Amino acid sequence: MSYYDAKSPRILVHDIHDPVKPRNRYIAGKFPEVISGRALDENLMSFWDATRQPNAILRFIFYYRIIEYAASHYVDSSVRAKLAKVLANPAVSMDIQKSVDLVLSAYDGARGDDVPRFNALLQHAVAPEIVWKEIENNKAAFAEDVIFDGGFKLNAILDKNESLSTFSRGGMVKFANAIRGLRNVLAHGRDQNTSTAITPTPRNLKYLSVWVNAIAAAAGEVVLYGANP
């Protein structure tokens, strides 16, 4: 009907499902009495503003884009140490070509490899307990495999007995890999390896909402702390 008539009526069939616990209102338990303002990246703030909408799929993608954008500029500590050594040489300007070669060599193995940089950013900028608060709210959703309408399968990232202490040891990498998989299938329409999808059904939006809460907590930390020190 909507193909032939853009104003045709819609019939809504409401899905009855178990409620999902909402996101924690205050990231630090309460609203701070004093906030010291500082300039933040305009592009990150633009993406952050775009997340204030009801569509869970778009919110997830914009939160992911915050992390992805910051990761593209992220330089890990080992590369920074190599660059600092090159630039600390008092005679760095005596042989420009040699200095350029040393700078380029500092990036060997790091250029064009987005996944390690993405994971390193999350580990650098996001404290595990921040994400864990949101995971713990709906722990069962993260402790079991989920097959979305459309066929895409998301593997569990923790077990039912997981705690913050165990999650802090490698849990952020599992979280990073999971949100990357979700983003890829949502952005491209289907998973390139399995040709499965996540369709925008009420059931899928329910499962996705718990991941939106978790990635929102991570993205907020990236906006504030994601820049290299």
Quickly list its features.
RiboL-PSP-HEPN domain-containing protein; mainly alpha; 2 domains; 10 helices; 229 residues; two-stranded antiparallel sheet
Radius of gyration over all CA atoms, rounded: 21 Å
Strand content: under 5%
Mean of residue pLDDT values? 88
Biggest beta sheet attributes? 2 strands, antiparallel
Structural class comes to: mainly alpha
How do the SSEs run, as a string of H and E?
Answer: HHHHHHHEEHHH
Discrete helix count = 10
Oligomer: single chain
Tally of separate domains:
2
The parts where pLDDT drops under 50 for at least 5 residues are none
Widest beta sheet: strand line-up: 1-2
Helix proportion range: 40-55%
Protein name: RiboL-PSP-HEPN domain-containing protein
Organism: Sphingomonas plantiphila
Question: Could you characterize the architecture of this molecule?
Answer:
The model has no long low-confidence stretch (mean pLDDT 88). The radius of gyration is 21 Å and the shape is globular. The protein has helices spanning 42-50, 56-72, 77-88, 96-106, 114-125, 128-137, 139-142, 164-167, 171-188, 202-225; strands at residues 146-147, 153-154. The chain has 229 residues and is mainly α. The longest helix has 24 residues, at 202-225. The protein folds into two domains: 42-75 and 113-225, no CATH class; 76-109. The protein has a two-stranded antiparallel sheet with strand order 1-2. β1 (146-147) and β2 (153-154) form a beta hairpin. This is RiboL-PSP-HEPN domain-containing protein. It comes from Sphingomonas plantiphila.
